[in-house]
Amino acid sequence: MINLVSLLVAAALVSLQCGFEAYAQIEGKNDLDNNLQPNVVPVKRRTLRPFVNISDPPPKSVRIAPGTRAELVCEVIGKPAPNAQWLKNGQPLSDYDEVNEIISIHPSSLARLTSKVVVTAAANGDEYTCVGTAGLKQQMATTTVFTVEDEDEPNLFTLEALFRKPTKPVITEYYNEIFQDIGSSAVLPCRYHSVGKAQVFWLDSRDELVYGNSRIRVLPTGDLLLTNIRWEDMGNYTCTVKNKYGKDSVATFLYPAKKQ
Ligand SMILES: *[C@@H]1O[C@H](CO)[C@@H](O)[C@H](O)[C@H]1NC(C)=O
Ligand SMILES: *[C@@H]1O[C@H](CO)[C@@H](O)[C@H](O)[C@H]1NC(C)=O
């Protein structure tokens, strides 16, 4: 059992740790050891200063045919657990995440977040900016969208085709991994883009449907709320979003960290 647990943790840590090492080097501090022992990050997590880093930014520019869809992806690592927002030509694309205002993010939490934006009606030269925020820290990355005109096909037709085309949901915001103190609460986001109505459900770390549990439950937004986190809660939580055209699934690895 112990071995299995260490293996699972090691798997989740490798990617996170790579991000932190890059960060520590940039900061000119050697906060982290170079090995990948599972217990390295949880121990050092406390001494790590608050930070945010766009560890995998969207491309500087993309070229798409007018009226077609594109997805931009932004990956953010931060302490406390970060969130991300998208701006289109400087204006917010969606309302600010209210849930995270209600259930405040634990100051010693640490997470890697993936945020996507579905670009549906871009004009040539539109700028999409990913804004990663963790506590008071913020970092941005901008993509310029260029639309390629296709002379053979009038714009109207492409647009019509877009609206008729059935599309499965896209999960646009989730944590890849999160470290969170035992005894505290966490909200695992599962935000999505769907044409038409969609259903959200979560499987817990034992692959069981989250339902009728008072400690772990799905919020109306589709996010998962875990209260009074225990060591046994460690593992992957899978969010699935379904509409009549298909589904999308993502996994969040929760690492309950010991308080020190
Ligand atoms: C958790 O899910 C991710 C993404 O599907 C996967 O890469 C990872 O191996 C899983 N980890 C465990 C411990 O099952
Ligand atoms: C963020 O992290 C990436 C590597 O993960 C690095 O290339 C980049 O320079 C970092 N950015 C800042 C501003 O620290």
Automatic annotation (TrEMBL):
Sorted keywords for this record are: Immunoglobulin domain, Signal
Keyword Membrane among record annotations: no
Gene3D superfamilies, alphabetized: Immunoglobulins (2.60.40.10)
Q: Where is the Ig-like domain?
A: 50-143, 169-251
Give the signal peptide, or none. 1-19
The keyword DNA repair appears for this protein: no
According to its UniProt entry, the protein's GO biological process terms are: cell development
Q: What is this protein called?
A: Ig-like domain-containing protein
What organism, scientifically named, is this protein from? Loxostege sticticalis
Q: What is the lineage of its organism?
A: Eukaryota, Metazoa, Ecdysozoa, Arthropoda, Hexapoda
